[in-house]
Amino acid sequence: MEDETIRDAGTVYTFSDPPNTSGNVINHVTDREFDSNGDLRSVSVAGVETDYDWYTSGSNRGEINTITDAVSNTWTFQNYKRGTPRTEQSPIAGIGITRTVNDSGTIASVTDAEAKTTGYSYDDNNELSASPRQRPPTTTRRLPAPARRAHPSATAC
To answer: 24: how many CB neighbours lie within 10 A of its CB?
Structure first.
């Protein structure tokens, strides 16, 4: 069950999850705050807040601009194409990724902070058609069935 609070004639909405009071679970409340456009502005979980900033104009209008955590680390997202940021910068200087986005909105490649590029390919339905990285083989191990023990009162025939 969630509570809704409307402030300033509908410009800010706050939704709160009630605290969990059962068992030995730590009580907490999750608050979500939205602006008048319906954009998420902040999330607070047990008092730890994450803030969201959105582009309000230009070609990126309506997309996420920055995410800032409780200790002021900020991630930046820029140069959107089809809803996907082509540039993403972490709070650590020099650590970021770039994406090449197809006209369909699918990701053609991602280049990481070590300048390693991973390419992606898609079928005619824009579904990922090949894994860019080989997955490790799956190992299945069968455990022996537990030994059957005769019930103490059972007698051999």
So the answer is: 4
Strand order across the 12-17 sheet: 3-7, 12-17, 30-34, 40-45, 48-54, 64-68, 74-81, 84-89, 96-101, 107-111, 117-119
d(CA 139, CA 45): 39
Q: How far apart are CA 92 and CA 78, in angstroms?
A: 16
Across the 157 residues of the chain, what is the mean pLDDT of every consecutive 10-residue run? Answer: 46 51 59 86 88 92 93 94 93 89 93 90 86 51 46 44
Question: Within its chain, how far is the Cα of 147 from the centroid?
Answer: 46
Q: Distance between CA 49 and CA 45 in Å, rounded? A: 7
Per DSSP, the three-state class of 140 is coil
**Radius of gyration, CA atoms only, the chain:** 25
Both tokens of 17, joined, read 């999850």
